[in-house]
Design brief:
CATH class of the largest domain: Alpha Beta
InterPro entries: aa-tRNA-synth_I_CS, aa-tRNA-synth_Ic, Rossmann-like_a/b/a_fold, Trp-tRNA-ligase, Trp-tRNA-ligase_bac-type, Trp-tRNA_synthetase
Number of domains: 2
Distance between the termini: 32 Å
Strand content: 5-15%
Shape: globular
Largest sheet: 3 strands, parallel
Catalytic activity: tRNA(Trp) + L-tryptophan + ATP = L-tryptophyl-tRNA(Trp) + AMP + diphosphate + H(+)
Keywords: Aminoacyl-tRNA synthetase, ATP-binding, Cytoplasm, Ligase, Nucleotide-binding, Protein biosynthesis
Number of strands: 5
Number of helices: 13
Bound molecules: adenosine-5'-tetraphosphate
Protein name: Tryptophan--tRNA ligase
Enzyme class: ligase
Radius of gyration: 20 Å
Structural class: mainly alpha
Length: 326
């Protein structure tokens, strides 16, 4: 238990099966072997326009979703990023050792800048540096994320190495943790793009808080590939491969077993069964979700803030001493 995992989710949009299978499910699987720190990364969310009232309620919603997914609040530190000011302080310091060319190369920045031409702000550009600060403050060993975040964790390592060699050995170098299956759940309406909260069509994703009947509809409407054979083939049958991966992870059945089970059956039958698997998963998930009230969540976030602040302050003091401002 002396190793630490750190990860977070933005309180923006509707959390979906991609966020669950790519991140949350792995946090739960790892939580008994590591000291766990899970953050609601609200300062990341404001790099895109947010309605303040919605943002406030989404922060509590995300913390509830962590618990509904199975994170144990008695052992994990769960907190809100903006409540621990060391994150933005360290981000500023790391900014001074980050090259703008490094940030220009970030795929997420390029994608988001393309989608939000009217709001390409400094925060969006600087997002990876704030993320590096999030991770490095907690002496993190492992960062469990979906594969869209691996480039950011790599930059975190570069900045940690650069800081340690320029000033003093303060930061631990974190490793990214990406599970092969579920690392990139693709859009149901377009298997060439990842499932995304900010997708223009709600038929792109199944939200964790979608009504089970709606989720069934979304699965039945998911695009499929040509042909009819149930075979996992990422290149030739990307849409089917995506559905098989979701099925396999939610039902805990291997893809090979699914291929054998649906041998000689068509896509329609697979989709019908998957729709039931997803609906059952959501009904159980949402039952747990509805059991947490706001007061309980606020208490958890306050306890988390206190614990996170203490760890973060210690690291920030070392950083300030190393650069000569303290
Ligand atoms: N499609 C995905 N498949 C697997 N993992 C995914 N993640 C996101 N999308 C997928 C992982 O979920 C965690 C939290 O993500 P985030 O809140 O930081 O948002 P994001 O990475 O920007 O992706 P979203 O949720 O789809 O939002 P938008 O639409 O804003 O890009 C991360 O670990 C992420 O890797």
């Amino acid at each position: 238990m002396n190793k630490t995992i750190f990860s977070g989710v933005q309180p923006s949009g509707n959390l979906h099966l991609g966020n669950y299978l790519g991140a949350l499910k792995n946090w739960v699987a790892l939580q008994n072997q590591y000291r766990c720190i899970f953050c609601v990364v609200d300062y990341h969310a404001i790099t895109l326009k947010q309605d303040p009232k919605v943002l406030r309620s989404k922060i509590l919603e995300i913390a509830k979703l962590y618990l509904a997914a199975g994170i144990n609040p008695e052992t994990a530190i769960i907190f809100q990023q903006s409540q621990v000011s060391a994150h933005t302080e360290l981000a500023w310091i790391l900014n001074t050792i980050t090259k703008t060319a490094e940030l220009q190369r970030m795929t997420q920045f390029k994608d988001k800048a393309k989608e939000n031409k009217e709001n390409i702000n400094m925060g969006l550009f600087d997002y990876p540096v704030l993320m590096a600060a999030d991770i490095l403050l907690y002496n993190t060993d492992l960062v469990p994320v979906g594969d869209d975040q691996s480039q950011h964790v790599e930059l975190t390592r570069v900045l940690a190495r650069r800081f340690n060699s320029r000033f003093k050995d303060v930061f631990k170098l974190p490793e990214v943790y990406i599970q092969k299956q579920g690392a990139r759940v693709m859009g149901l309406d377009d298997p060439r793009k990842k499932m995304s909260k900010s997708a223009s069509s709600e038929f792109n994703y199944v939200a964790l808080l979608d009504k089970p009947a709606m989720a069934r509809k979304k699965i039945m409407k998911a695009v499929t590939d040509s042909g009819s054979e149930i075979k996992f083939d990422l290149r030739k049958k990307p849409a089917l491969a995506n559905l098989l991966a979701i099925y396999s992870l939610l039902a805990n059945v291997s893809v090979q077993e699914l291929e054998a089970r649906y041998n000689g059956h068509g896509y329609g039958e697979l989709k019908k069964d998957l729709a039931e698997v997803v609906a059952k998963f959501l009904a159980e998930f949402q039952h747990r979700f509805s059991g947490f009230d706001d007061q309980f969540i606020n208490n958890i976030l306050e306890q988390g803030r206190q614990k996170a602040s203490a760890i973060a302050a210690e690291t920030l003091t070392k950083v300030k001493e190393a650069i000569g401002v303290a």
